[in-house]
């Protein structure tokens, strides 16, 4: 015991200290080297995207990450978004589905897949994915917005009004909020004297 502070001191000595190579809690395995390399490729893709790199090179980085780790949901989503921007909706959809297979609770992947379905006229499927995104993240403003549009197109005006209101609780000031207010106002005049 140290005389001045009263703190108990233990003598661990120095022998055997070199036997500790790494500390890891029980049940936690070290990351597989391929997973670590996949993360590096994913980060490279992000860096290239942020710095305005060539789309082909960005896509190759994400693709390499997926070859090393097929469960890299972020790489699936980012690759899907690249394909979407290239107007390759079939490949974008495949990527978003890959992200959901790797991580079923990935709200952004559900949202993006909803967008693909909506563009393809598959409104019921789009609504399912937007609903799923909102179940995972109830304050996902863009999912409320897009679901309101899908509901309007499907003739579900009361449901659309509900999502316009939800959107406006989250976003009150953007130009999109102005559109949401306008849409909600139109719906209120159409539905039973404005009852919701």
Q: Low-confidence parts, pLDDT < 50 over ≥5 residues?
A: 12-30
Content of β-strand: under 5%
Radius of gyration: 25 Å
DSSP strand tally: 0
Instruction: Give the ordered list of helices and strands.
Output: HHHHHHHHH
What is the helix fraction of residues, given as a range? 55-70%
Write the CATH architecture name of the largest domain.
Alpha Horseshoe
Which CATH C-level class of the largest domain is it? Mainly Alpha
Q: Report the mean per-residue pLDDT as an integer.
A: 86
The total tally of domains equals 2
Can you tell me the overall shape?
Answer: elongated
According to CATH, the fold-level topology of the largest domain is Serine Threonine Protein Phosphatase 5, Tetratricopeptide repeat
Q: Main β-sheet: number of strands, strand sense, barrel status?
A: none
Fourth-tier CATH superfamily name of the largest domain: Tetratricopeptide repeat domain
Structural class: mainly alpha
What is the helix tally? 9
Determine the N-to-C terminus distance: 73 Å
Give me the secondary-structure topology.
Blueprint: H1 33-50, H2 55-68, H3 73-85, H4 89-102, H5 107-119, H6 123-136, H7 141-153, H8 157-170, H9 175-190
């Amino acid at each position: 015991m140290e005389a001045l502070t009263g703190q108990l001191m233990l003598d661990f000595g120095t022998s055997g200290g070199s036997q500790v190579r790494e500390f890891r809690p029980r049940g936690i395995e070290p990351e597989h080297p391929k997973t670590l390399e996949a993360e590096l490729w994913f980060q490279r893709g992000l860096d290239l995207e942020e710095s305005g790199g060539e789309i082909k090179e960005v896509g190759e980085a994400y693709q390499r990450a997926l070859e090393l780790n097929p469960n890299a949901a972020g790489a699936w989503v980012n690759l899907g978004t690249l394909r979407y921007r290239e107007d390759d909706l079939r490949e974008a959809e495949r990527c978003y589905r890959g992200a959901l297979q790797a991580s079923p609770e990935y709200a952004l992947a559900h949202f993006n897949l909803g967008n693909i379905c909506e563009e393809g006229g598959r409104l019921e499927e789009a609504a399912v994915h937007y609903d799923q995104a909102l179940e995972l993240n109830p304050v996902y403003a863009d999912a409320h917005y897009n679901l309101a549009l899908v509901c309007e197109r499907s003739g579900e005006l009361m449901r659309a009004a509900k999502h316009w209101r939800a959107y406006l609780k989250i976003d009150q000031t953007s130009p999109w909020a102005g559109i949401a207010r306008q849409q909600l106002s139109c719906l209120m005049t159409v539905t039973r004297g404005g009852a919701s």
